[in-house]
Amino acid sequence: MILRYVQNRFPGEYQATIGANFLVKVLQIPNPVKKSSTPIKVALQLWDLGGHVRRASMVGRIFYQGVSGVFLVYDVTREDTLYKLPLWVKEYKKYSPNAYSILVGNKIDLTEDRKLSFEDGEKYKQELGASLFFETSAKTGEHVKEAFETFAKFLVERSYKKMEETNT
After folding, report:
1. DSSP string, 5-65
2. Is the pLDDT at 109 greater than 60, yes or no?
3. Is 145 helix (H, G, I), strand (E, B) or coil?
4. How far is CA 9 from the centre of its chain?
5. Architecture of the 2-167 domain
6. pLDDT exceeds cutoff 70 at 19
7. Which of 6, 55, 92, 97 is most buried by its number of CB atoms within 10 A?
């Protein structure tokens, strides 16, 4: 998903993330304070930690401390990928208890192999305490940009709201 979003490409063969991949994407979003003013620049630092469950507790403080937001991605063709997400939530909450999350069901292009419905994702969003939910296809690019940019806007709006509350 990150490669599709940042570089608009999708590797032909699936390659599991070994270690961590890091990419940056700079975008402009509407200023949440002055709606008619110049958009603000946001630099998203995107880390792909891979999905192997044993890695959730291994990456710990190094990657989780101070994060603003977390993408919780599952494969709509594999139920186990959704049901293992609470472990990841537990781990990132240890180091960044105020981080927001977005739940993303990926691989919606594989309609014949789909095991989890949109409704399953919506339900699990509530259970995980995620702020947003999207379904995407990294292969086709469907809803990938929208997921990242909607979440970026959400995080910036929350950040400005916290600053306002602190200053009052």
Report:
1. HHHS---SS-----S-EEEEEEEEE--SSSTTSPPEEEEEEEEE----HHHHHHHHHHHHT
2. yes
3. helix
4. 18
5. 3-Layer(aba) Sandwich (3.40)
6. no
7. 92
The identity of residue 97, as a single letter, is P
47 φ, ψ to 5°? -110, 130
User: Could you give the dihedral angle defined by the CA atoms of residues 86, 127, 143 and 39, in that order, rounded to the nearest 10 degrees?
Assistant: -100
Give how far Cα 52 sits from Cα of 55, 56, 63, 157, Å.
Answer: 6, 7, 15, 32
What is the reported pTM? 0.87
Q: What does R_g of the chain's alpha carbons equal in angstroms?
A: 16
Residue with tokens 């095991």: 115
Amino acid of residue 126: Q
Structure tokens at 85: 């997400």
Quick: pLDDT tens for 21-72: 778 899 999 888 776 678 889 999 888 776 555 555 556 667 778 889 999 9
Q: Looking at residue 163, what is its pLDDT?
A: 76
What does the chain come to in residues?
168
